[in-house]
Design brief:
With about 800 residues, the chain is mostly beta strands. Helix content is about 5%, strand content about 65%. The chain has a 22-stranded antiparallel beta barrel. The chain has a six-stranded mixed sheet with strand order 8-9-14-15-12-13.
Length: about 800
């Protein structure tokens, strides 16, 4: 740990020195005489209130080249100094508002100061008092380094979680249990409003209501600025916010077939410099499932067959409260504090789980029950502080996050013998349960510095310290009927301590050279890991240093075309559960054991993209190549004729090579189509159990979304996707197809929305896996009860939806008219 701090201090000192040199160089006198100043004030058109953080850019009138820029302060004012004599125009832009341009600004020795007066920005809104604006954001927007999913336009996601919002998204695959993969990898990073969360991957996405999400950013090849954890990339959840004065918010509720209930509320109260935030999320959802499996164990003299079939449900439930405040200290200093706390429970629950064992033609039948109760208590707190140095584009951002969670996961296993038929006719033979207790806490400290020289030239640097700690206890107990007591089996119970500290520093530099946009980045991290298995008195340590470079290049082409090339290196570190060398029971016949010798897996990711904009439509073509070393895989091994062990191994590497075509087409004013197709080759190679592994497959997936607008604020949406077959170390996962439909009606001047949805309307979503080696063959299939119908209602008040009269979006400095942007 001491070495890690030394590393951070040395690199941090280098960054500070660089920053000081940068500031000193910017203060040097320029060759050309500078004496002109442009100032003004930006205001909101509805409330006539000042707008802070508005970006103001100054361009030359002659060739439209960018000269410099500034950001408005808390009173909406801006001042831009040191401008040479000449003619300029000004452009003001702010998220959620229409850009405003002002022309005809002249600076000369006789008129060295120009004041624009009060400039008005108009919010981008759907409804006006006199004129209705029908232009809406596309379901998916494309940027040089990300895809932006506008969740509010995905009707089939309303009433669900972030998983449903991602079901029809390019580069994303989901399965029947709500698990998400990003271009085939489950090891991606989830951020909320650009900040890390204690939850990992699919776990985080399953707990966030889609109705509270503004949009989702998919970053498949992140720069060195981002935490490199997660080989698949980053999914950034942008939550809905509101900056109006007074009280405003949104309330959502939904109910669905097979016992599905959701409700959430988010409130904002802004007064002068303070914005208070409060919210609540409630979730109680059950997915009815049917499970079948078959296992063949090849013995020396005989083959044993095991068949299982059963129905039950997988559930997700929870109640979460959140609140906080944002405070504008002055025009250069901003602070915010947020917290959330709540309980959640989830897990499988299978009743009527029949089991048949056949050896030498003799059948033995049993009834198994597995009931799982997983209860979690989660606490998260965030403290953020930002400082803007001046109008030259220098900014400092910092954050501290503390997270704590405690889990209690109890699994009950009951087995009844039933004779020689599927019907229940036996007596209780065995009752067991496992109780897994986990206490985790995490501390993350992050600081970032940004220097913006002009629109294209930017330097960023930052430091991050992360500490993750976990204590896990597993109790294995049996019920003895003689005294009706649960007694602990000390030979199968264990306790684990896990500590991991990560110290990182990064720096990025971007500019435009020879007509190309270039972003270069480099990140260095020290990882200090300790795993201590108390029960067997085993300690494993690891200390390592890793580099993570990144390169992004973009080249604009004629006719609204653009080429993008990128490279990044990422890491996936094993969790404490994957490292625990003690065995944990899934049930009486299935065990899981960690591997303390697991190494992190590393991925080199290359992407080449092409984009073509056709009016309001987009076509995007991306080729990608991803190579992962030290690939972490789950491996199955038979310990006896009836007990299977699943553990983790570093299989040498895998390769993914593919092409992804994405189209967002506005075919008619009332009809929008979004479609994507992904064709790729996946190859896995290495050594396992002294045998060569060489698995390969060519596969594909497609997604489509049709949205049709009808009169009277009514929309219909039909979505579908197909995921093709893919291979694993010891087998394969089959493909599946799913289609969803939704109808939405807006009422009360679009303040309320009513939505009817149908999920998996053809009952085609099935999840099947096969695994095998020389000693066994195993197959398992899950099917979710479908179709599922839901009814959702959403009510927005204040400026989530507003009406207004039309304002002029562009003004001429000398009072004349101008071109509309």
């Amino acid at each position: 740990m001491f070495k890690g701090f030394v590393f951070v201090l040395l690199l941090g000192n280098s960054l500070i020195c660089f920053s000081q040199r940068t500031n000193n160089s910017s203060a040097m006198p320029r060759e050309m005489p500078i004496s002109g100043t442009i100032s003004g004030r930006i205001m909101d058109t509805i409330h006539k209130m000042s707008l802070e953080y508005v970006s103001v850019a100054i361009y030359k009138e002659k060739d439209s080249s960018l000269i410099t820029g500034a950001i408005t302060d808390s009173t909406g004012k801006f001042v831009i100094k040191d401008l040479v004599w000449g003619k300029y125009f000004l452009e003001a832009s702010f998220i959620g508002y229409t850009k405003t341009r002002m022309r005809g600004i002249v600076l000369n020795p006789q008129k060295p100061f120009a004041n624009t007066g009060k400039m008005i920005l108009s919010p981008e809104m759907d409804a006006l008092d006199e004129v209705v604006i029908t232009g809406e954001k596309a379901l998916i927007e494309y940027r040089i380094d990300k895809k932006i999913i506008n969740v509010s336009h995905n009707l089939t996601a309303i009433g669900g979680s972030a998983v449903e919002a991602l079901e029809n998204t390019p580069s994303i695959q989901t399965d029947i249990d709500g698990n998400v993969t990003l271009r085939g990898s489950a090891n991606f990073k989830v951020l909320i409003d650009g900040k890390p969360t204690v939850l990992r991957g699919s776990e985080a996405l399953q707990q966030i209501p889609a109705a509270s999400i503004e949009n989702i950013e998919i970053i498949t090849n992140p720069s060195a600025k981002y935490d490199p954890e997660g080989v698949g990339g980053i999914i950034n959840i942008i939550m809905k916010k509101n900056k109006d004065l007074g009280v405003n918010g949104i309330i959502n509720a939904s109910l669905g077939s097979y016992n599905k209930y959701k409700a959430d509320m988010m409130l904002n109260y802004r007064v002068k410099k303070v914005n208070f935030i409060a919210g609540i999320d409630f979730n109680d959802r059950k997915d009815k499932t049917i499970r079948t499996s078959r296992r063949e164990v090849y013995g020396t003299n005989d083959t044993t067959f095991e068949d299982n079939k059963g129905d039950g449900f997988i559930y997700h439930a929870g109640l979460k409260f959140k609140g906080g405040a944002e405070y504008t200290i002055n025009d250069k200093n901003f602070i915010s504090i947020m917290g959330e706390a709540g309980n959640s429970s989830h897990g499988p629950n299978f009743n009527n789980y029949f089991h048949r064992t056949s050896t030498s033609g003799l059948d033995e039948y049993a009834l198994r029950e597995r009931k799982s109760d997983d209860i979690s208590h989660n606490y998260n707190s965030y403290l953020n502080y930002d400082h803007i140095f001046d109008t030259s584009g220098q900014k400092f951002e910092s954050s501290i996050q503390f997270s704590k969670s405690s889990d209690e996961d109890i699994d009950y296993f009951n087995e009844y013998t039933t004779g020689n038929t599927w019907e229940i006719a036996g007596v209780n033979a065995d009752k067991q349960k496992t109780t897994e207790l986990s206490n985790e806490w995490s501390l993350k400290i992050k600081a970032d510095y940004t220097k913006l020289f002009n629109k294209n030239h930017k330097y960023e640097a930052g430091i991050q310290i992360e500490s993750d700690n976990e204590e896990g206890i597993l109790l294995y107990e049996k019920l003895y009927n003689s005294n009706n007591l649960w007694l602990n089996d000390s030979s199968q119970s264990n306790e684990l301590l896990y500590h991991e500290n990560i110290y990182g520093v990064y720096s990025t530099w971007s500019d435009k050279i020879l007509g190309m946009g270039i972003l270069l980045g480099l990140r260095g991290e020290v990882t200090d890991r300790l795993t201590k298995q108390i029960t067997i008195n085993r300690t494993d340590k690891m200390m390592r240093f890793d580099f993570f470079p990144s390169i992004h290049i973009s080249r604009p082409l004629p006719l609204n075309q653009e080429l993008m090339l990128s490279y990044s290196r990422r890491i996936n570190r094993p969790s404490g559960r994957e490292l625990n060398p003690f065995s944990t029971y899934f049930d009486q016949h299935n065990l899981r054991r960690g591997n303390p010798g697991l190494q992190p897996e590393f991925t080199n990711s290359f992407e080449l993209g092409y984009q073509k904009k056709i009016k309001t439509s987009f076509i995007s073509l991306e080729g990608y190549y991803r190579e992962t070393y030290n690939k972490i895989n789950m491996i199955s091994t038979m310990l006896s004729d009836s007990v299977m062990l699943r553990t983790f191994e570093n299989i040498d590497r895998d390769f993914s090579t593919g092409v992804e075509l994405m189209m967002n087409l506005v075919l008619l004013k009332i009809w929008n189509v979004n479609a994507s197709g992904n064709i790729y080759n996946y190859r896995l190679e290495g050594t396992f159990q002294d045998s060569e592994v060489n698995q390969s497959t060519n596969t594909w997936d497609i997604r489509f979304s049709n949205t049709v607008k009808f009169p009277h604020d009514t929309k219909f949406q039909l979505t579908g996707m197909y995921n093709g077959l893919t291979v694993t170390v010891q087998g394969n996962r089959s493909g599946f197809f799913v289609a969803n439909a939704a109808l939405r009606k807006d009422v009360f001047k679009r303040k309320m929305s009513i939505t009817l949805q149908a999920f998996d309307i053809f009952s085609s979503m099935k999840f099947k896996m096969e695994s095998y080696d020389k000693s066994f063959y195993s197959s398992m299939q899950f099917t979710r009860k479908s179709p599922v119908f839901t009814f959702s209602i959403s009510y927005k008040f204040n400026n989530y939806k507003q009406s207004r009269s039309r304002d002029v979006n562009e003004m001429q400095f000398n009072g004349g008219g101008g071109d509309m942007m």
